[in-house]
Every structure is written in C-alpha cells, then in structure tokens.
Amino acid sequence: MSVPHAKLPGWAEYGLIPLVNLAVAFLISGLVVLIVGESPLDAAYHMVNGAFGRGEYIGFTLYYTTTFIFTGLAVAVAFHCGLFNIGGEGQAYVGGIGVAVACLALDRTMPWYLVFPIATVGAAFFGAFWAFIPGWLQARRGSHIVITTIMFNFIAASLMNYLLNRVFKPLGSMSLETRTFEAGGQLPRLDWLMSIFGLDLGSAPFNVSFLLALLAAFAVWLLISRTRLGYEMRTMGFSPTAARYAGIGEARIIIVTMAISGALAGMTALNSIMGEQHRMQLDFVQGAGFVGIAVALMGRSHPAGIIPAALLFGVLYQGGAEIAFEMPAISRDMIVIIQGLVILFAGALEHMFRPAVTRLVLGLSPQGRDTAATRGA
Amino acid sequence: MSELAIELKGIDKSFGVVHANRTIDLKVRKGTIHGIVGENGAGKSTLMSILYGFYQADRGDILIDGRKRDIRDPNAAIAAGIGMVHQHFMLVENFTVLENIMLGAEESQFLNAGIAKARAELRRLERDYALEVDPDAVIGELPVGLQQRVEILKALYRGADILILDEPTGVLTPAEADHLFRILEQLKTEGKTVVFITHKLREIMAITDEVSVMRRGKMVATRRTAETSVEELAELMVGRRVLLRVDKKDATPGDTKLSVRDLTVRDSRGVTMVDGVSFDIRAGEIVGIAGVAGNGQSELLETIAGMRRAASGTVTLSGRTIDVCGAADPSELRRRGLAHVPEDRHHAGLVLQFTESENAILGYHGDPKYRSGLLLDTQAIRAEAEAKIAAYDIRPPDPRLKTANFSGGNQQKIVLAREMERDPQVLIIGQPTRGVDVGAIEFIHRRIIEMRDQGKAVLLVSVELDEIRALSDRILVMFAGRIAGERTPAASEGEIGLLMAGVEDGGEAAQ
After folding, report:
1. ipTM of the complex in this document
2. Is A84 on the interface with B (CB under 8 A)?
C-alpha cells in the first residue's frame, strides 16, 4: 500500500505554511542585513514604512501589486492545466504592442474610457498570440513549453528592440520609446479610492488597471472552478490520461490555455504603459513576468491567494526601494537578494517545512485530526 | 536455534492519521510456507515493509531466529537473512541476469572477480533449487515468469533464509504460477522459510502450511491451512459472510451491438499489440477476455473506447462504424451509447484530486444538463452525484469529498455509477475489481450481471481468471495480441490456462 499523505486543514495549508515560509525568508534576510553591518530592525521599519507609511507609498505599492496580479494570474492559469508558462515576461512585453498601437492611433480623438477597452483587447491579443505559438508547438510538435517560452522571452526582447527602433520611435528622437500619449492614452489614477480612506495619492501611478486586475482575478476564479473549459483544463492538469479518457482534446486545451495565460500576461502592459509612463519604453516589464511565477506559487494558483501574494511582492518592491534609499549600505542588489529569498522559500522550497507543520498541527489539535481524517484539505 | 524463523511482537505503525498496523503479533515457523491474506489496505504490505526495513515500526519487536533485530533499512534485513520478491520487479531491464543478481553486491570496484564468483554461485543455486535461468540473457527479453525467478535468485544470492513474496502470481499464467509453487516447495524442503502475501485464497489453500489473516490493520487469525476453508478465510478477511459465487440466469442474447473486425493496434514504438482481432458481442451477453496482463487486452479496450488509434480494422457500434483508425472521439462514442470503465481508474477513470461530484461527470461534462448559462450548474451536478451515491452505496456519502480519500472499492463504484446510470448500449469494463475489497466485489459483480439482464452488451477484460469464468457467457483468450481461442465458462481452468500460455487450438504452441 502507498503511504497516505496527511492532509492539513485549510487554514494551515493556505495560511500557516506560507506564513512560516515568509518568516524564514525574512529571518535570513535579516541575517544578510546584519552581515553588511546594518540593523535588521531598521531595515524592517523602512520596508514597512516605505510600503505603507504614506498615501503616496501605498499608491506605489498597489501599482506594483496590479502588475503582479496580472502576471501571477497568467502563470496560475497555465499551472491548472499542468503547463509551466515561464514566458510571462515576453508575453507582457509583446502585449505592449497592442496598448501602444491603440493609444498612438486613438489618444487624440477618443477619451480614455473608450481607448482603455480597445487597448485591453489589443494587449490581450498580442500577449495571447505570443503564448499561442509555444502552446501550438507543444500541442502539435511536442516542443516542451518551458524551453519554448524561455526562448520566446529572448525573441520578444529582440523583436521589441527592433520595433521600438524602427517603428515606434518618433522621428529625430534618440531614446527607444514611443511618443508620450495625449489624454486619451492616459489612465486616470485612483485618487477617489484613496481619498475614501483619507489618503493622498501624491505622485503615485496607482490607476484604474488595478480594478481591471481585480476583475481579472474574479474572472479567472470563475473560469477555473465554474466553467466547462476550466473543468477540462484541471482534468488535463491533474491527469492527461483521464483527459484522453474523457474525450478532452489535448492539443486544443493546451493551445487555449496558453492563449488565455498569455492574454493575462499581456494585460500587464496596460498598467505601466497607459497607467504610469504614458508611452512604451524599452524593457518596461522589468522582470515582472518572472515575479509572477513566485506569486502564483505562493498564492497556490488560486486567485484569492494570488492577490495577497501580489501585494506582498508590491511591498517588497516599494519598501525595498525605500530601504535602498534610506540605508546607503544596503544597495539595490541587496533588495533583490531579499526578494530572491522570498521566492526561494515561498516557491522553490514551499514544502520544506510542511512535514514539521503537519506533525505540529495534526498532533496538537484533535479537531485538526478529525478534519484531516474525514475531509482532507 | 529457535523453532521460529520470524516472530513479530506488538508491531504498531501509523502514517499520520492512518493506523496501518495495530499491535500485530505473528509467528512464522522455520521451514514452512506461511500465507498472509487480507483485503487491500488491510496492512499486509506495510507489515512486510517493516520486516524488510522500508519503514520503521512505531512500537514492537522483530525477532529473527529467536534473536531481537533492529531492522533499520533493507541492508539490515538482508544481513538478517531476509529476502524480498516485490510485486513489481526491481530489475534493470537492459542488464543481463548475472548483472542484475550482482547489482548491489559487486564486492569491489573492478567487476571481474565478482563476476566469476557470482557465476559459480549462480550455478550452485540453480542446481540446488532447480531454478534454471541463462545467466547471460538480458532481463527485458525474458518472460515474466523467468524474471520473477531472477528476483528469487537475487534474494538467495544474498544469503536469504527467509523469502517474502508480495502478490507473486498477479503477473503469471496458471502454468507459470504452478511452476512457482513447485520452486517454493523445493525451497521449503531445503529448509528455507517462505512468507507468501496474496489476496487469492485458492493459492493459499494450494501452497501454504499456515495462514494469517489481516483485517483493517489487525491480525485477526492464524490457522493451519489444512484445518481451514476458503469460506472461513473470506469471512475472516471481510468480517462477515461473503457470497463467493455469482448467481446468474442463462443469457438471452439479442442483436449484435459491438462488432470488431481484423483490428490491429500498434504502440508508440510500432510493436503490434493487437493483431487482427475479430469478435462480436450481442445485446444481453457478457463476453470475457482472459489472458495474462500485457497480451494486448488493455490496448484492445482503449482502442474500442477511442483512447487509442488502431492501425487497421473496423469496429461497429450498434450498426454504425467507429472510425477507430482516425478521429474516434471518446465523447462522441459516449453519445452513441458506449460506456467505458477503464482498467486504470486512478489515472484514467478518475481524477483523484477532484471532488466526488466532479468525477461523477467526467467524460459527460459537456452534457447541456450540467450547464446553466456559461457556467457549470454545480447544484444539478451535486444533486445527481448524491442520487448515485445513494443508489451505489458509496461511502462516505459526501459528494464534496476529494476522490483520493475514498477506498478503492468506493472509487470503483463512483466510476461504475457514472458509466452504468447513463443507460448505455454497450459497456466495456477493464479490471472491474482490481484493488477492490471483497465486500464491494460482490456488489460490482451483481451490477454487471444486472446490466446484462437489462439487455446491454458487455465486454469484460480481467486478469482474474476466476472473475472471467464467473461472469462471462463466452470467454475469449488473448495471447500475444491475438485471440488464441474461445471457450464457454464451463471449460476447465487448465484448458483456458493452456490458451493463456499461447498453446492454441490443435495443440500447437503459438511461439
């Protein structure tokens, strides 16, 4: 007989374990800070203060959060179908084409609320297209999606370099970027939302694409758990043999899933292009596509987990920038180390503390014992 | 020297919340063949894994030859003179017999000395125990029965005095099983002790001297084999009286529902798995396909169900052709009245991570009655799942429970409920009772007969010859991808066994 895998109650599975992982990551980060001769407590203070200390800081934190929700959802959708889409970076980058084209064409003639949906469709379309190709290659040609999506990140970088240089750059300009969009290509910031809580957004680029991200999270939840397509995706993800048995076309489901994943990644471009810079710049994604992998892992691929995980990484980005600013001994690279540690413990080593936590939870609480025996997690 | 080869005292083992072994006592006398029977999940394999050092007991003592032993890992078990022949062989397929036997006992960095020694030792073992195997044959090219012999040689080479065999006959033809039994008798006369784990009671009666019965982690009884009966053992295993025979009326076959003609199927390597198979199944009859696992039954079943493409041939379902060589689609076949209970319920028939109600619609999830607007109608799905749970007595009766948490028998009932309640024309079933407890077997067999009596055409594939003979109205025997012959259920086991071994009608061997 096989060894039964002890199941944890939901609060431990989705609350306690991520918390333990996070605590260890921060503990080791504290040691790193100590080694360079700074106070970990000061660093922690600057991290929290830098992320939440003022309305403006919160605005920046939520701006980053928006980006990570999109990329996290993109990775999560593919995970549910058993696909590891590492190409969020490139899909978000190429998605920028859709946003830029929509804004450049329409920003002078249409208001933002008309340009926004068109740009959204454009971003989703180009992102989906960029993920469709690896999806098609895996479904029809057996090329592994991990390899192809990584390669497509590089292809996207070169392609965008070329397009910005030869197509999008205004005549006479030296920098690799489009012209700055007019009012129709600028998303309104969410001052009103912040002022409900009595906060002043200051110069933070927190904009309406945040609301789109929340909507996307809800839509992904519906898709995965309440639709036939989501049912087929999960069947495929858990057991390709069962999918074949159930008459679910393997090629179709892989291609469709990758397209949806890419569309979500592509929408990331809305936040930075239309929401912050109001133009498309070289390398505007800045690694957010890769952070999405950590966000999806930490959020257990569930939208309700992805939003807090995205917020955490928003805090790390914004608070980390503040640490680097306030504590000169801690360079920008140190912040990357801390982020890396969080990814390491929350993502790659997510099961490290599971046996200990399982023993603790099931050993201590008789209720946990019952829950585990009858219900599973 | 002690009278007892093995003595277990108060062995206790839990995995998390599962109490797999509860204070087990066991005495195995030296120079005997000792059977251990029990349903799946009764704790037999856990107990043997503790004895062989894969797991550590939480409590309890292990005595070998009367001396207390601390068996931390398989190496300690081997040192104590225990050898194990696993259900799934632990052999390197592209190594020779000699290389496999030496593996882990090479003795030095350079192999020459070891090889010479191993060859000499192997020759002695072959002579003493009548275990002939060509030491230079490559494992992958040997038939299963010989591979098993290599496993036994491996254990003996390591100096085993106690041999544990875990479900050794599952992969053997009746003739090969008989040969194995002769080997075991030989080992016994040479003074070795054999522990024989199985769920087949007839084998226990045929070969063992004593038998211990396990149920739900407990050792419930030990009997002298000569003083017990199959009925008593079955009752001890299940904890209540069991009907071992299936009562059924004679079949009243109607029109042909499923017709297979010259079907040939090749696997991904291009090896022919099904070779020009033809047969018909009529409404109201059960056709059983007997054969040793791996002779093309699985591929035949999957091809008819649309999960695998055929190289050539035709299949006709209720008078209409299925495009088995091209785009046969399982969902389309379901709509046309073909229900399929797959052999591998863990990977094909169910998604173990799904809830019970999600699995209750697998394959039929496209049916409009499960949809409301764009979304799945979870309430309708759950209501239907609850009705099936009641009708098939699936326990625990909770459609929101994850399928992995159901026992094997209840998992199989989930699949059967889904496939049978659709009122199909043709039902194809693979290994209906594999890994299913004795109590549920009774229920499943009764359901299959009921389907037949309702006028369904049933194709049954099973490696359990007893099951095939009990349920089928006609028996086809497959060997090496071909139908070796057809028999009635009245045919003797020996007759069917010959066909399973490839001796075709007319007395000539097929190979």
Report:
1. 0.82
2. no
